[in-house]
Amino acid sequence: MTATAHDTTTAIFRGMDRATLDAAYNNSEAVADSPNWLEQWRARSAVRRAAPHARLDLAYGDKERTSLDYFAAGVSGAPLLVFLHGGYWQRNSKEMFSFVADGPNARGVDVAVVGYTLAPAARLSEIVGEIDAALDFLVADTGGFDFDRRRVVVGGWSAGGHLASVASARPMVSGALCISGIFDLEPIALCYLNDLLRLDRREIEQLSPLRRIHAGAAPQCLVVGGDELPELRRQSADYAEVASRFGLPIRSRTLPGHHHFSMLDELAGSDGALTTELLSLLGE
Questions:
Q1: Residue among 47, 36, 121, 133 at smallest CA distance from 84
Q2: I need a surface site. Which of 31, 44, 151, 244 has the fewest CB within 10 A?
Q3: Within the chain, where are the H helices?
Q4: CA neighbours within 13 Å on the CB side: how many for 249?
Q5: Rounded to an integer, what distance in angstroms lies between the CA atom of residue 269 and that of residue 133?
Q6: DSSP state of 78
Q7: Which stretches of the chain score pLDDT less than 70?
Q8: Residue limits of the BD-FAE-like domain (predicted)?
Q9: What does the alpha-carbon distance between residue 253 and residue 83 come to, in Å, rounded to a whole number?
Q10: 110-126 exposure pattern, b = at least 16 Cβ within 10 A, e = fewer
Q11: Nearest to 282 by CA among 79, 71, 77
C-alpha cells in the first residue's frame, strides 16, 4: 500500500508515521507556555504600534492582509529589514510582530513588517507572490521610504524563515536572515499542516529552498534554537549542507537554550544574537 498524508500507522517520512510527524512539527505543543508567548508579543507590539512615527497598514496589494507596517530608525538612508511573520503560512498576523522592530531600530535599521494572505485563502505560491509584491512596493520610490536600497535584508521566523529564503533570489535583496525556518516542504505536505495548505508536487519542488537552489541568491544566515524540535534543527542543517555544496554564501548557527518562541527575543533586543547577525548581513 502506498503511504498517504492521512495514514496513521504507516511510516511516511524518515521512519515516522502520521501522528509522529504531526508532533514533529507542532511547535505550540512542544512549548508548554506557547500561548503566553503569543500574548506577550501582542502586548509588546501594541506599545510599538502606538509610537508616534509608526506607519501602519500601508497597502502593497488589494487584499485584506496585503499591507505592511513601517518602523523607521530615524536615520536618513538607513538599511532595511523586511520581516516576514510565522504561523505555518496559516496563522498569526503582522500586528503581533511589531515588537521585533525594537532591536534593529535601536541599531539604526528601518523595519518593515509584512502581512500576507493566509492559507487556505491563498496557496503557498500565491503567498510567495505577495511577498514579491511587498518587496517591489518597498523599493519603488512611490512610498516615500528613506532607506538604502542597496542594503535590504529579508528576515523571517518559522514559515517566515522559509519565505525569506525564497525571497533571497530577488535582485533587490542583499541578505536573508532565516530564523527557525522550513526549507523542505515534503514533510509539511505529509502532516496536519497540509490540511489547509494543500501543497501539490509542483509547489513542493519549486518552493522548497532545499530542492531549488538559486545560484545567484543573496547570502543567507540560518539560525535555530538549541531547544527546538529536532525536525526544525534538521531542516536548517540539511539546507545549509546542500546550499554550501552548491557554493551559496550561507552560514548556520544554533542558539543554545532557546526554543521556537524565545528566539525572537534575540531580534527584539539591540544586543541580541539575531540583531548581531542582521548587522553582519548588512556589512556592519
A1: 133
A2: 244
A3: 18-24, 27-30, 34-49, 102-106, 124-139, 159-167, 186-190, 194-197, 201-207, 230-245, 265-268, 273-281
A4: 12
A5: 29
A6: E
A7: 1-8
A8: 78-168
A9: 19
A10: bbbbbbbbbbeebbbee
A11: 79
Position 2 in a domain: no
Q: Domain for residue 36, yes or no?
A: yes
Determine the structural domain holding residue 206 and report its residue range.
18-281
Q: And the C-alpha cell for 201? A: 508536487
Element (H, E) at 153: strand 147-157
Residue 13 belongs to some domain of the structure: no
Is residue 161 within 8 A of residue 180, CB to CB? The reply is yes
pLDDT at 3: 42
Q: What is the secondary structure of 177-205 as a DSSP string?
A: EEES-----HHHHHSTTHHHH---HHHHH
Instruction: Judge contact between 273 and 223, C-beta under 8 A.
Output: yes
Q: Indicate the residue type of 172.
A: M
Q: Is residue 5 part of a domain?
A: no
DSSP assigned state of 270:
T
pLDDT of residue 273: 99
Name the average pLDDT for the chain.
96
Rg (CA), the chain: 18
For residue 99, the domain's CATH number is 3.40.50.1820
Instruction: Please give the grid coordinates belonging to residue 150.
Output: 542597496
C-alpha cell at 193: 499542516
